[in-house]
Amino acid sequence: MKSRTSLFSKTIFIKNLTRLWPVWALFSLGGLITAFASHTSTFMRQGDFYAITYLDARSVYYNMIPVGIPIASFIMSVVVFANVFNYMYTTRGTVFFHSLPVTRNALFVTNAVSSYVMVVIPQFVGWFVFTILAITKGAFDPKGAFTCLYAILAISLLMSGMSLISAQLTGRTSSMVLLNISSHFFFSVTGAVIATFYSGFLYGIRGETFPAFNYLSPIVGLMGNIKVSERSDYAPTIVNGETVDIYRILDVTIENLSLVGVYLIVAIVLILVSYFLYKARSSESATEVVAFKGVRPILLYSYAVVAAIAGAIILNSMLDYAYNSTYSPVRMVFFIIFTSLIAYYVGKMIIERSIRVFTKKTMPGAIIITVLMVALTIVLASDPTHKVTSVPDVEDVDSIIIATSSGEFFLEEGDEELMQYVISTQKKIAELGDHYESFGENNWYFSISFYYNLKNGKTETRSYDMSLYKQYLTDHDSLESLLDEFVNTEPVVEKIYHLNGNKLKNDCLSVAISTGSEEGYYYGDNLEKGDVEKFRSALLKDIREKKTPRIDIFSMGDYNEEALATCDFMDYIEGDGDSDYVYTGGKMLLNAAVNSYRQHYFWGRVDVVPEMTNTVNLLKELGYKLPEK
Amino acid sequence: MIEVNNLVKTFDGFRALDGVTLKVENGSVYGLMGPNGAGKSTLIRHLLGVYRQDEGDVVYDGEKVWENVAVKSRIASIPDDWFYFGQATVKDMCDIYKGMYKTFSIERFKALKDAFNIEENKTIKYLSKGMQKQVAFWLALSTMSDYLILDEPVDGLDPVMRRRVWSLIMDDVSSRGTTVLVSSHNLRELEDVCDHVGIMNHGKVVLERSLSELQDNMVKLQVVFKEGEEEPTMDGIEVLHDSLTGRVHTMIVRMCPESAVKAVKKYDPMLVEAIPLTLEEIFVYEMGGLENEIKNILV
Question: What dihedral angle (degrees, nearest 10) is formed by the CA atoms of A411, A416, A418, A422?
Answer without folding.
Answer: 80
